Predict the structure.
Amino acid sequence: MMKKTHSLITGLCAVAVAAGACVLFPTLAMSDNDDQALITKANALFKPLPDSAALENTPLTPLRVSLGKALFFETRVSSDGRLGCATCHNPAYYGADSLALTVGVHGKQLPRNAHTVFNTPLLIAQHYGGNRASVEEQAYKAVISPLAYGNSTNEQVETKLSQLGYLPLFKAAYPDDAKPVSIENWSKAIGAYERTLLTPAPFDKFLKGDAQALSKTAKLGLDTFINTGCAGCHNGVTVGGQSYQKFGITQDYWLVTGSTPKDAFKGYDKGRFHDTKNEADAFMFKVPQLRNVAVTPPYFHDGSVATLPQAVRVMAQLQLGKQLSDEDVSHIVSFLESLTGEIPADFAKVPALPVAAH
Amino acid sequence: MMKKTHSLITGLCAVAVAAGACVLFPTLAMSDNDDQALITKANALFKPLPDSAALENTPLTPLRVSLGKALFFETRVSSDGRLGCATCHNPAYYGADSLALTVGVHGKQLPRNAHTVFNTPLLIAQHYGGNRASVEEQAYKAVISPLAYGNSTNEQVETKLSQLGYLPLFKAAYPDDAKPVSIENWSKAIGAYERTLLTPAPFDKFLKGDAQALSKTAKLGLDTFINTGCAGCHNGVTVGGQSYQKFGITQDYWLVTGSTPKDAFKGYDKGRFHDTKNEADAFMFKVPQLRNVAVTPPYFHDGSVATLPQAVRVMAQLQLGKQLSDEDVSHIVSFLESLTGEIPADFAKVPALPVAAH
């Protein structure tokens, strides 16, 4: 519950006190104080979204961004002709795919859930295992991954892109390159596009001082979120996504989530261990960002939990050893809903892709 | 080649003739006459797109159209959670899917090519075999098809739609129905949406009298298209799509297209025969519409031909016993490009779909 802070009084109340009348509007005065205190408390843990997620010295030129957007929706580069970035990062589902476990080429189920693409350039790394340093590296490795796009060499991808008629678009976006159609430029262009996909939310307005941007229950939820300890991991500009943590501190996660062993991991998913082979990384996962969490179910690295209230309960129990009341859960969910952002105006507009030359 | 028509002269030339000067601009005069003659000739075979493809007495209300649009992009109703109307009718590929053979749930390849969705309410029927009478019937049968959406009963679909949070949208669109969430309303709403998807093209302007709407080569191509006999089948408002014809009149089609036998047909695709079991229907297919043909490769019922010039050559040979010159092919392709229409403004904008209630 929100801690009631009475130590500061508003100017209005100060005048009222002087007139002996402050008792007439104590709720208003308390609420304003609480709001200010909560804004201050929140700013110690979180940051509003920046205006841009561009790399230093790498301007997001319109030609690069629009090429990146075309490539984001392009499926003909995959080995079954059906998979593109937008397949797992679908505008219909807030940049995720609504599935528990995402799917690669030829309909093959992969062992983890797909994150939303929004705000990902601001994360510590990409994927639940953090095995991609940047959105650019993710785009690069996905297109030559046998599991994701089903290609295995750079040349395969570059030949397809040329045949599809992309040369003029690459040339325009990277005019100084001797070889414009390259996987390097594929990854840079998609990265440029993804760096435009930020989703400012009511919570950002609140952090910047607009106390009315959050409902009363959302504010109670934010306070509960902080006081319960959630913000120990879910902090920073993306409310998570800035560190790695063990999933299942109080007990094995699958006892609570209903997760099942996966063939790809020869058992339960041990997170970063599968990449590093270091026992210290067992069950360490990137803490997911919580921006847009309310609109991107299902939850966790394997999508094993379907609803947000249940995900909140599971996290409190597994990570903090706490049983939340229904009221606390409901308030926290209300706060998390204030992280649902405005989708970039152009994101949902699918571009008409080049038709291969006759 | 375009027939030169000299019988009519323009007012300008009449004045010039009176002054004995018509020889100074014979090309202009001939061209104007030719254009008018070609417009007249074309209007005897083709019709411009109507303003609306609404069913009689069934208004396309905004609530029905927007529900239909959401359902068009909805994938969670399919048994693998990945297939919706927009999977095969993708805005990125002008309402088709760019594949030779389209794909159903669980990545299973189907035996025929997916048509573009544009202008389909105006066709004689749906599918290459014409086994769906209307866009509404197509939407109805697809969602309970084990091959397409992977469902088998109406109840399965209706339960999923309710769980996904669609009840308020159905109620708003069909307020008088005792049971708003029904497959009947699924099919009506998607039909309402698809009935808005018309793509007026330069050729429509030409038919309405604007001779400049088509380039000179497109006009030569239109004349060649008619004189060669293509318009014998590819006529009407959708330049095809109004009748059934045997594919492969001069010889078996697979000898020219490179088509292969399909398991689903226990051999080569015999078109409507597979539905009717009537030998008279062997190799009878719905004549495809040619609107947007230049931007929806690959071609034919099995996508066996990759490029438009080759498709034009194959058709002339197989259906009309003619070998077209490269020049004729190039002109016809130029005419076909004038059938590429304006995409409805809102079509490519993917709606954010309901998030299942907590």
